[in-house]
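Minutes, methods subgroup
Present: GH (chair), OT, SY

1. OT presented the first of two proteins processed in the latest run. Sequence and structure tokens recorded below as shown on screen.
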Amino acid sequence: MARIKIALPEHLPFVTELMIYIEHINEGQHLDNARLLGLVAEARCRLLAELGFSQVDIGGAGIILADVAAQYRSEAFHGERLLCAMGIADPHRYGFDLVWQLTESASGREVARGKHGVVTFDYAKREKAPVPDAFWQRWQERFGMLPTS
């Protein structure tokens, strides 16, 4: 079976620092794969908050995750600080890919990269909804550019 290979855009405009706590460590004494996704979820919430949004409201619609792919590049350990860089790829009418890369802060060692398929969602109607123009406007105001397909 072929391995997942995730290509990242040249620039991931949002960066936040995350600490690896003991609760993130598995019996192999490194970052647990399920906890990695929890760290990425924390970074996603921080990104949305920086834009003035939340997961249930990005300017008139919420978001749900349709899929996730992760590519592990190296181990990460208790006490390390990770930089999580995020950006958007493949925008479309009803969502986009939220792409991310985790690197160890002190050395720059890449720990993992991945993407979440995001679908914009009308929680009242329980159906997909177009990405609100307000989201793209705020993204451009904050990061100076719109993502391209």
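2. SY then presented the second protein from the same run.
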Amino acid sequence: MPAVVARHDIARIDGLIRPHIRQTPVIEVNARDAGVTAARLVLKLELLQHSGSFKPRGAFANLLTHAIPAAGVVAASGGNHGAAVAFAANRLGIPATIFVPTTTPQPKQDRISSYGARLQLSGDCYADALDASRRWAADAGAFEVHAYDQVETLLGQGTVGLEFEQQAPDLDTLLVAVGGGGLIGGIAAWYAGRVTLIGVEPEAAPTLANALRAGHPVDAPAGGIAADSLGPRRVGDLMFPLAQAYVARVVLLSDEAIVGAQQHLWERLRLRAEPGGAAAFAALLSRAYQPAPDERVGVVVCGGNTN
């Protein structure tokens, strides 16, 4: 197993952040009622996490394991990571400055501001916001909390896997949406091949699919309806060896399939997922991933920051 992110470290971080995060519920769903083919379907509802996504796990992992300077913390984000860092900083009494591109949806901008962070709009995409945040951090002396390519971020996101296994220990397959790869990388480190791990990406942002094809992280398009959460320019260097080792395959989805999954989750289950949060479920609904008749399938519904 790649040594940077290990199971025992995920377990240690889980104990550290546990007082600050929610253990999000899982629900077992009748697959026929949900309109998908699977013998058993279990959803992990990370959209019910503080700030509306799984991201506070990595945010608290960073803030609780580093000496934070007086200038506080800085993060670049498409929205969810920024909200999580702002939330964690607010809880811990730390100043936070969050850079987002102008394309970040207004509900996510509003959520960041609601936690008392200083919000800065910069550029048209996540990469622009990241460049601006790093320039600001160098001048101000703030601590950078990276959205996905940071050890503590991966360890924190890996606690989703730890928790899911405790709640649903007999899964065969787990579907996880991929942006920069922090979530699937952390989950891959936790399970370490003990489930079949499927990455799910928009066709308009195939970051991991392209990286696996090339044998290393490469720039990819960063478009589509889920670009604010699943559209960085490339996957992280730290997660990539984990993906090579433990991600069985990546499936790609159209924007139409993702929107259809959002609507389906609301109409059938009354779950209000954002596009990125609905993507993993969309792989089942669209038949981009077709389980075997007796397969037990888990899906991470990873975000709900939408209006």
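Chair's summary of item 2: Residues 7-54+150-301 form a domain with the Rossmann fold fold (CATH 3.40.50.1100).
Next meeting: continue with the remaining queue.
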